[in-house]
Amino acid sequence: MTLIPLNDLGRGLVQEREALLAAVRSVLDSGWLVHGPFHSKFEATLAEYVGAAEAIGVGNGTDALELAMRATMPPGRDVVVTAANCGGYATTAARQAGYGVVYADIDEATLCIDATALSEVLIDRVGVVVVTHLYGRAADVAAVNALCRDRGISVIEDCAQAIGAATAAGPVGGLADAAAFSFYPTKNLGAVGDGGAVTTNDPGTAAKVRELRQYGWSRKYTVAHRGGQNSRLDELQAAVLLLRLPTLREKNERRRSIVARYAERASSRLRIVSTDDAGYVGHLAVVVTPDREELVEHLRSAQVQSDVHYPVPDHWQPAYADEYAGVSLPVTERMAGQILSVPVFPELHDDEVEQVCRALESF
Length: 363
Ligand SMILES: Cc1ncc(COP(=O)(O)O)c(C=O)c1O
Fold this sequence. Notes:
By secondary structure, the chain is α/β, with parallel strands linked by helices. It is built from 13 helices and 14 strands.
């Protein structure tokens, strides 16, 4: 039995080596390194892919969240609401922008933000709600939009884990006021370094993000907006992303089919968080069990790596815990002790998938 890794980026890099080298060569030959032709083409291609009017390339997914928040926060408001089980990225972005953060509990079945819990925390100062499509599963954006629209609250989708996923209303990324994407190497569409993007259907939001990502300049050397920063997606990353985007659908399908096999074979003591339709793109294969420590040991003896995404909810993070001493998020807190990620990536071999299936079956 060989060890099945949680992820192995090296396999994809070996398969794509010649194409990647050719992409790098084209960038160097073009003489443009930042905001050149590959970047423009990637923005247009991504917008089309997610069905949004515009896409704006930025340095990473956390910047994408921050710039989207700054561009859509209504005047006079300064609080962001999100779920506390999504790795803390929206929290980092909101804090960076100087906004307060309030958490809503999650739905036990989907592990995404729960609309009823959300409705209970929409205090007057809330200007933005971030809805995260967690683990590759499209969240119920329509329910969040319905709560927020009449209250003048902007909705941002966090699509970092779910590029290519769709709801009945269309692909994620074009379903709310703005959306944030990450192209961190482990994402379903990964760069060979950091990268991110904001998508939106609103021209005003797009224009503001474009200015904020480059020092807040309205034109060269003229700072029109406070809160600007340097957050650019470079030409090399844009060229790699353009190369990889055409294979994303097929890779998402492979991810989905691997997780579907886990769901079919897993013992009745385990629940797999997924759907078998386009609402899920298998970013992470997450198993729920009250007996997590026992499962970790069982998988270890079956040579299967596992990890927890994420072990510490945002309101319990040491840096901010004092502010949330009175906050209770029962589902978030319980699930943090019961979730476990098992291997899923497109280059997993069938015999490796079988080894994971056997381990999940025999638990
Ligand atoms: C849900 C989610 N949002 C945001 C991010 C932040 O992206 P980045 O690492 O590119 O800043 C990530 C991943 O890292 C993520 O998983």
